[in-house]
Amino acid sequence: MDFGPHLMLAMLEGAVTAAILALTAMGLSVVFGVMRVVNVAHGEFYMLGAVIAWFVATTLGTHPAVGFVAALVIAPLVVGALAAAADKLILQHIDYDPERTIVATIGLLYIIQQGTLMTFGPDASPVEPPFNHRIALPWFEWGEDGFAFYYPWGLSITSYKLFVIVAAALILVALYLFMTRTKAGLIMRATQQDSQMAQAFGIPVSKVYALVFGLGAALAAIGAVLVVPIQQAHYLMGHDPLLLSFIVVIIGGLGSLPGTVIAALLIGMSDGVISVFFSPTLAKIMATLAVAMVLVFRPQGLLGKKAH
Amino acid sequence: MDRALTLHLAIIAALALAFFILPAYHAGNLARIMVLAIYAMGYNLAFGYTGLLSLGHALFFGAGMYGLSLSMQHLGTPTLPALAIALACAAVVAGVVGALALRTKGVAFMIVTLMFAQAGYLVALYFSEWTRGEEGFVLPQTMRQIAGIDLTTAMGRYFAALVLFAITLLIIGHIVRAPFGRTLIAIRENEARATMLGYDVQRLKWIALVISGTISGLAGATYALLFGYAGASFAAVPYSILPLLYVLLGGAGTTLGPLIGAAFMIYLFDLSADITDAYMLIAGVVLVLLTMFLPQGILGTLRARRFKWLP
Amino acid sequence: MTKKLITPSTTTRRGALKTLGLGGTALAASTAMPGFIQAQSSAPIKIGFQVHRTGIGASYGRWYDRTSQAAVKRINDAGGINGRMVELIPEDDGTDAKRGAEVIEKFATQSNCDIAFGTLFSHVVIGSAPRAGELKLPYFVVSEGHHVASGMLNRYTLQPGITDVKSQVQAMAPYVASNLGKKVCMIYPDFAFGHDHRDYFSAAFEAQGGTINAKIAIPPTETSFTKYFPQIPRDTEVIYHVMTGPAVLTFVKELGEFFGPSRPELFGFIDSLEAVDIASPGLEFLEGSYMWEGMPRYVQTNQSEWDKAYREAVGVDENGASVSDPRDISTYAHMFGCWETLNIIKAGMEASGYQGPADRAKLIEAVEAMSDMAEGMDHPQGAKIFNGKTHQTFGHQYITKVEGGRMNLVHTTSIEDTLYEDEVDYTTQSF
User: Fold this and answer.
1) How many interchain CB pairs under 8 A, B with C?
2) Per residue, what are the HEC states of A52-65?
3) B119 vs A108: CB contact, 8 Å cut-off?
4) Does domain A3-297 have CATH number 1.10.3470?
5) What would the DSSP string read from start to end of A18-46?
6) Taking a C-beta distance cutoff of 8 angstroms, is the pair B86, B64 a contact?
7) Measured between CB atoms, does C134 come within 8 Å of chain B?
8) Mutate which of B134, B226, B266 to disrupt the C interface (most C C-beta within 10 Å)?
C-alpha cells in the first residue's frame, strides 16, 4: 500500500482507539480528580460492561440494534451501581487512604475477575454490531491529468467504527456540560477543590464520592459497550485499558478533563501511526518510553497545573 | 546485642531448623518464600522506608533474572560470576531509571516506573531469539551449582535461599537503623523538612532506589538459579504488584514484614486452592478485609499495638 | 528440510521389549498376560493433573479437564491400571509459570502423586519441567510445543500424546504450495510461539519452491489489527495466520473488512479459534478458508468408529460442541492429546509393571520403548509414531475447509510429512 493511504488508515484506526480510550480514561480521571484515589479495578469495570452487553444482547435475542441500545443503557447503570456499592462498603471504610485503596481495589479486581470467570466463563464472546458497512475511502494523487481521486486497495473503514468515534465525542460533550452546567456537576467540582470545605457547606461528601465512583465505572462500561462489537467480551480484557487509562490520565494532567481528552487522542493516534514506521513491538517499546519521558520532564502532565 | 538483631538472628536460626522439621512440601514452599521475601525486602527499602511507591520493580527483578540466566545460558558463565553480572545489571538499570524517575513524585512516579518496567518487559519479548520471550527457557541443570554444592537438590536450594535471605535481612536491618536509614525515614515522613535540614534528598533517594533495585535483582537471579527457569512473565506488571502486596500485608517499613507478607500470600493462594477453584475470589476478599481491618499490615499493627521495639 | 523416517533403535533391550509386543499394542499385550501383574496395593494410582482453570488458558483447561475425566473413567471401567483404580488430582496452575512449578512440587511432595500430567501452555511446561526433573516425577505434557523435542527439557518430561508445532507446521507446507499458492504472507504473534511458526513454516515452504513475501509480526498485547494489514503485499496469494488469544475474532473480522469482497486464499491454525463457534458473528470472512486441525471438530463423512465412541465418552456432539450446551464449543483439535496420553501412561505402567514411585524410571523406559501406536480406541485421533529418543510423538495432521459454517476435511497429511531429524537423545541422560 502507498504511504499516504497507509498513514490515513493508521490514523483512522488510531481515532477509534482514542475514542474508546478517552471514555475509559475519563472515568478514571473523574474518580482521580474528585476523590484522589487510584482505582486499580477500573479495567474490571470496563470488562464487566462488555460482559453485561453480551448478556443483554444474547438474552434479548432480537435485532442487534435493539440489544445494543438496551446494553448501552443497562450496562453502565449496573456497573455504576456496583461500583457505588463497592465505594460505600469498602473505600469509605478505609477512608480513601491512597495506599490502602490500591490494595483494596486489587482485591476487588480479583473478586470481579474470578466472579466473571465462574459465571460468564473463560471464552471470548462477540456481540453483533447494530449496523456495519464497509466504506471504501478515496485517496488523491497527482497523475498526468493533474489532481485525481481514486480508491486505493484496502483503504476502508466501517460505518460502525465511525459511529464509535461520533458517539464517544457526544458522550464527552454531554459529560462536559454535566460537569460545568448542572448543580450536581458544581457539587462535584466543589468537592474536588476542597472536600472539607464542601462538607462544611453541607454537601454530603460521602454520597458525592459514591456517585463519582459509580460515574467513573459507568463511563468505563459505556466505552466497553461501544467496543464490544469490534472486539469481544472476555474476562481478562480489562488489563490493557487499565494501563492505558492510567497513562492517559497522568499525561493529561491529573483531574484535567480537557487534558485527558487530548492525551487520549495523542496516545490512541500515536499507537496507530507509529506502527506505520516501526516494527510493532519496537514501536510499543518506543511509545512506552516516550510516555515515561514526557512525565519525567513534565511530571504535572500536559494540562496539569504545576504542583505547589 | 540489641533486641532487633537478636530477633533477626533468631528468625534465621528458626528458618535453618525449619528445613529439618517441616515436611518436604512446606520446606520447598519456604525456599520460594524466602526468595520472594528478598524481593519484597528490596521493595520495602524503597516503598516502606523511603516512601517511593514504585510500580516497576519487576524491571529490576527481571534484570537480575535475565542477567544471570542469559549469561549462564549463552556465555556459559559459572554461577558466582553470573550472579555478579545479575547484580550489576540490576544496579545499572535501577541507577538509570532512578535518575530519570526520581524527577517525579507521587502518582507520576508510579506511572513512570510502571512505563519503564513495561518497556523492559517488551524488550524481553523483542529479543526472543535469546530470551525465548513469554515461553522462557530452562537453565542447564548441571550449571546450577555454587562451589560444588548442587542447587537443584532440596537441601542445596533451601540453604542457598536461606543464606541470601539472611544476608539481605542483616544488611537491611543494619541500613534502616544506621543514620542513612533514619534519614530515609525522615524523607518519607516529611521531605520538605529533610531538605531544609540540609540533606541531599534527591541523592539519598537515588541511592535507596539503587540498593532496592539491586536487591530485587538478586531475588530475580536467585529465582532463576534455584528454580531453573527464566521467562518474560516474571518481568510483567503482576510481578511489580506482588512485592507491594507482600509489603503492605506484612507491614510496610518493618524488616520482617516482607517475609510475613510473602508467606501469607503464598499460603493464602495455596490453601484456598485446596478448598475451591475460586481461590482468586478468596484471595480478593481477604485482601479487601485486610486493608479494612489491618491497615498497617500484620507486623505494622503488632508494632503499633504491642511491640514498639519491632524493627 | 531433509526428512527421515524414525527407525527404532535396535538395542537388545528395545528389541526384547518389542517382541513382548510393547510397541503400540502394549495394552493388548498386558491384558493378554494376566497374572503377570499382581496388584500389591489397592490404593489408587494418583495422577497429578496440572490444569489451566484460571488465566489465559482457561478455555482449554475446561475441556482438557472433561477429556481427562472421561479417559480416566474409561480406564477405571476397564479395571484400572495393574488392578488399581486411577485417581486424577487436578490442581489449577493459573496458566502461570511460577504457580506451575509450585503445583509440580505439590504433586511430588504433598499429594504423593505417581506422575504429573496434562499441561498445555508452553511457558507453564518450561517453568515446571526443571522441578519435575529434579523431583524425579514423570511429567507427561499435552502442549504441542517444540520444547520437548528441542532437547531443552529433561528425561522426566515426555509428550507422547500430541504432535509438536514444528511437525505440524512443516507438514502444512506441501499442501499450501500445491493447492493454495506460492506467495505466502505470514501473520503471527510476535513471541516464541509465533516465531516457531515463522521459522519452521518458511523453511518448509521455501523447500517446496514457494516464497514468503512478507512476515508480519503482531505484538502479543494488540487488540486491533487493521493498521498492520497495509503491510500485506498486493501480490499475496495466501495469507497464513496464526493468532493467539481472545483477540482472534477481531483479527478475522478486521481482515475481512480490509479486503472486502476480494481476498487472497487464507490458511490458518485453529489454535485461537478453539472453543469459538465458527458460525460466530464476524467470522463469516473465514468461509472458504483453510484450517489446520489436530483432529477435525465437525464429524466428517469418513468418521471412524473410534472418533464416534470418543465423542460420546467425552460428551461432544457432531459439531464439536458439548452435548449439554450447543454453545459450549470444545477444544477438539487439541484435547484428544489428554485422552491418548492417559492411555499411553496406562500402557507404560502395565508394560513396566508399575507399582509405585520406585518404578518411575521403569515407567519412563517403557514409554521410551514405544514406537508405533495404531489408530484405535486408545488413539482415536489416528496412528502415531513415538520417538523414544526425543520424547515426542508424530502423527497425522488434518486440513479442513470452512464451508457453510462448518469445517470439512480436505486433506490428511502422512506421518512422514511431519518427521524431522532428532535434536536430542534423552535416553542418554541418567535418571
Assistant:
1) 94
2) HHHHHHHHHCCCHH
3) no
4) yes
5) HHHHHHHHHHHHHHHHHH----TTHHHHH
6) yes
7) yes
8) B134
Round to whole Å and give the CA distance between A158 and C266: 22
Backbone angles phi, psi at C211, to 5 degrees: -125, 145
Q: Report the half-sphere exposure of B17 (CA within 13 A, side-chain side).
A: 6
Model-level pTM? 0.87
Chain A residues with CB under 8 Å of C235 CB are none
Asked if the Cβ–Cβ distance from B128 to C53 is below 8 Å, we say no
Contact in structure between B146 and B160 (CB atoms under 8 Å): yes
Three-class DSSP category at C11: coil
Contact A231 C250 (CB under 8 A): yes
Residue B42's Cβ-count burial label (10 Å; 0-12, 13-18, 19+) is buried
CB within 8 Å: C280 and A14: no
- Positive/negative CA dihedral, B11, B13, B14, B15: positive
Which chain C residue's Cα is nearest to A228?
A: C250
**Inter-chain CB pairs, A–C, below 8 Å:** 96
Give me the helices (H) in C110-188, please.
122-134, 165-175
Question: Which amino acid, residue B186?
Answer: A
**CA–CA distances in Å: residue A286 to residues A25, A247, B123, C218:** 21, 14, 10, 15
Cell numbers that stand for C290 in this block:
483453510
How many angstroms from the chain centroid is the CA of residue B41? 5
Q: Please name the helix (run of DSSP H) or strand (run of DSSP E) that holds residue A142, with its range, or none.
A: strand A139-143
Question: Which are the contacts of A204, defined by CB distance < 8 A and separation ≥ 6?
Answer: none
pLDDT in tens, C148-197: 999 999 999 999 999 999 999 999 999 999 999 999 999 998 888 888 89
Beta-carbon separation of A156 and C282 below 8 A? no
What is the mean pLDDT of each successive set of 10 residues along chain B, which is 311 residues long?
88 96 93 97 95 93 96 93 96 96 86 91 90 90 86 93 96 93 92 90 95 97 95 91 90 93 90 78 84 87 85 81
Per-residue cell: C87? 485417581
Q: Which of C155, C149, C128, C246 is nearest to C200 (CA)?
A: C149
Across the interface, whether the CB atoms of C281 and A126 are under 8 A apart is answered yes
Amino acid at C102: E
HSE-up of residue A12 (Cα within 13 Å, Cβ side): 24
Give me the residue spans of the domains in chain B. 3-239
Mutate to test the interface with C, among B32, B129, B229 (most CBs of C within 10 A): B229
Using CB atoms, which residue from C54, C247, C248 is nearest to A117?
C54
Which residues make Cβ contacts (< 8 Å) with residue A158, sequence separation at least 6?
A: A129, A132, A133, A134, A135, C257
Q: Which of residues 89-118 of B touch A (CB under 8 A)?
A: 100-101, 103-105, 107-108, 110-112, 114-116, 118
CATH class as words, domain C165-293+397-431: alpha beta
d(Cα C71, Cα C344) in Å, to the nearest integer? 11
ipTM of the complex: 0.89
Distance between CA A260 and CA A253 in Å, rounded?
7
Closest CA to C166 of C413, C390, C431, C419: C419
Q: Could you give the 3-state DSSP secondary structure of residue C256?
A: helix
Residues of chain C with Cβ-Cβ distance to B132 below 8 Å are: 126, 192
The widest CA-to-CA distance across chain B, in whole angstroms, is: 56
* Closest partner CB to B284 (pick from A93, A108, A254): A108
Topology of domain C12-163+332-395, CATH: Rossmann fold (3.40.50)
Structural domain boundaries in chain C? 12-163+332-395, 165-293+397-431
Q: Which of A2, A13, A59 to mutate to test the interface with C (most CBs of C within 10 A)?
A: A13
